[in-house]
Amino acid sequence: MTSVGARLSRFRQKLGLSQEELAVQLGVAERTYQAYERNETEPRCHVLKALADVGGDPTWLVTGRTPAVGRDRAEATGSPMFLAIPHFAETLRLPGEQDVDGETSHAALSLTHDWAAGLTGCNPADLVHAFAGDDAMAPVIAVGDLLLIDNSDCDLRHGRLYAFLSSDILLIRRIGRTVAGQLLLVTEDVRYPAEPLPIANGEASFSVIGRVRWHGRRLPD
């Protein structure tokens, strides 16, 4: 029978993640995660819960056995176990071009189909991911928070949260409306006043990436 560490390594490789990347998703230090794979220590309850949140099966990890219900359900639904959620920049550039961060590529985020659908309430095939880059939406969204964005929903509606690209800068803002009906970009931090949608020469000088459907905080090491 394989060990807990071997099963965890197998799960990580199936996700296509490095040890550092999965450690971040589980909320532990990289050295702690490495100790799991070396069987020097075993994941505690909060780590097993985080594992389930990214599509893992704690029962399988600990015992090596997969519940029959889970196998039967996957076979019956035909849903893919995992899907790759691309970084938003990957959808905005041509092959070989640098993206808005000056990078040539970003790793996709691997999630289970059912988990992503239940979490966001939309078709997972329409999702892209990003990381918040400023503190304008704090304390609701902090710098570095993971965002899941539905890029099929770009119809701006009052009160909803959207991701925008303006002058190659990623902005996360809520849509507001003035008494006269003008749409505003609204923040949570009073240091950043609400602003009208940026318009230049009669046309919008920004692009809507999509509606933010979920955000989650990265835990400190």
TrEMBL record:
List the Pfam families. HTH_3, Peptidase_S24
Q: Which SMART domains match?
A: HTH_XRE
Give the record's keywords alphabetically. DNA-binding, Transcription, Transcription regulation
Q: Which GO terms of the molecular function aspect are on file?
A: DNA binding
Q: Which InterPro entries match?
A: Cro/C1-type_HTH (IPR001387), Lambda_DNA-bd_dom_sf (IPR010982), LexA-like (IPR039418), LexA/Signal_pep-like_sf (IPR036286), Peptidase_S24_S26A/B/C (IPR015927)
Q: Which residues form the HTH cro/C1-type domain?
A: 8-61
Taxonomically, which superkingdom?
Bacteria
Q: Does the keyword Transcription regulation apply?
A: yes
PANTHER family per record? FELS-1 PROPHAGE TRANSCRIPTIONAL REGULATOR (PTHR40661:SF3), PTHR40661
Would you tell me the protein name for this molecule? Answer: HTH cro/C1-type domain-containing protein
Which organism is this protein's natural source? Zavarzinia aquatilis
Q: What is the lineage of its organism?
A: Bacteria, Pseudomonadati, Pseudomonadota, Alphaproteobacteria, Rhodospirillales
